[in-house]
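Example (one chain per record):
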Amino acid sequence: MRKILILFIAFSFSLSAEAQLSKFLKKAEKALLGDGADKVGLGLKEALEEGTNASVQKLSAMNGFWEGPYKILIPDEAQKVVSTISKVPGFTNVEKDLIAKMNEAAEFAAKEATPIFIVP
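Predicted structure:
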């Protein structure tokens, strides 16, 4: 009987502590997020949209990748193939042309991918 009473008291304290913790967490959430949570969320969303739009505008412009720090180069794995092909007559500019085409494709892709990053 004594063990049952001890278990009941421990269980009661456990429920009381859990209820108090739950109330504390709800108060903390309200204090941190409160009524301004929507405004903060909207502000962050707007800042992300503006940053995305500015980045897309810059990168999708003509030579946006080619002339910037984001220039796409030929991967090391493909360099051997490109070097070999460039020795064939008529393909001496293959490396330059390939890099230009990859960067043009990236400019197009940046513009096309915008809807992925901006959620209505």
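Caption: DSSP finds four helices and no strands in the chain.
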